[in-house]
């Protein structure tokens, strides 16, 4: 999650409002920022999801503000882990908190999924699958990185 800025400083996780084409506002976008030179970039892990969301917003032609954490389950877990981490200080590493948060959210969604399946509610099942997707993508990528 950490990377170095061009100036050699460590970049920190943060969240900010990103505006595209003066029209589409996406708030709480996870970014990496450098305090020294105020450079920032979108967190690589969510770049693809952000691009997809922007395409979807353009498609719908709706301007206005969207909370990225409302539409992306991984960003939501990332955001709440970040807030917990800021509050509790250095008791736990951020990565540990995030991992724990992802596991809990995945289990919660899987429980919901089995409810939806029992109810044979395919619309609900699809909705849960699409909420699970960014989380499982992240978990998979993390495992990839760890085994390398
Ligand atoms: Zn810098």
Write the layout of secondary structure elements.
Blueprint: E1 3-4, E2 10-20, E3 24-33, E4 40-42, H1 44-60, E5 64-67, H2 68-71, H3 73-88, H4 94-118, H5 122-147
Parallel strand pairs: 3-5
Antiparallel strand pairs: 1-2, 2-3, 3-4
Helix pairs in contact: 3-4, 4-5
The protein binds zinc ion.
Protein name: YgiT-type zinc finger domain-containing protein
Task: Quickly list its features.
single chain; 148 residues; alpha+beta; 2 domains; 5-stranded mixed sheet; 5 strands; 20% strand; globular; binds zinc ion
Question: What's the gist of this structure?
Answer:
With 148 residues, the chain is α+β, with helices and mostly antiparallel strands. It has 2 domains: 1-70; 72-148, no CATH class.
What does this structure look like?
This protein is of the alpha+beta class and 148 residues long. It folds into two domains: 1-70; 72-148, no CATH class. 59% of the residues lie in helices and 20% in strands. It is built from five helices and five strands; from the N terminus they run E-E-E-E-H-E-H-H-H-H. It has helices at residues 44-60, 68-71, 73-88, 94-118, 122-147; strands spanning 3-4, 10-20, 24-33, 40-42, 64-67. Strands 1, 2, 3, 4 and 5 form a five-stranded mixed beta sheet that branches. Helix 3 (73-88) crosses helix 4 (94-118) and helix 4 (94-118) packs antiparallel against helix 5 (122-147). The longest helix has 26 residues, at 122-147. The chain is globular. The two termini are 16 Å apart. Residues 5-7, 9, 34, 36-37, 39 line the site of zinc ion.
């Amino acid at each position: 999650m950490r990377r170095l800025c061009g100036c050699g400083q460590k970049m920190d996780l943060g969240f900010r409002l990103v505006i595209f084409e003066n029209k589409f506002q996406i708030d709480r976008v996870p970014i990496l920022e450098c305090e020294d030179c105020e450079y920032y970039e979108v967190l690589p892990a969510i770049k693809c999801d952000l691009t997809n969301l922007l395409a979807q917003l353009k498609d719908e032609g709706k301007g206005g503000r969207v909370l990225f954490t409302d539409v992306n389950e991984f960003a939501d877990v990332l955001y709440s882990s970040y807030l917990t981490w800021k509050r509790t200080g250095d008791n736990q590493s951020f990565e540990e908190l995030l991992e724990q948060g992802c596991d809990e959210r995945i289990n919660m969604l899987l429980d919901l999924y089995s409810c939806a399946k029992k109810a044979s509610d395919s619309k609900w099942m699809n909705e849960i699958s699409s909420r699970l997707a960014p989380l499982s993508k992240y978990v998979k990528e993390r495992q990839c990185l760890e085994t390398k």
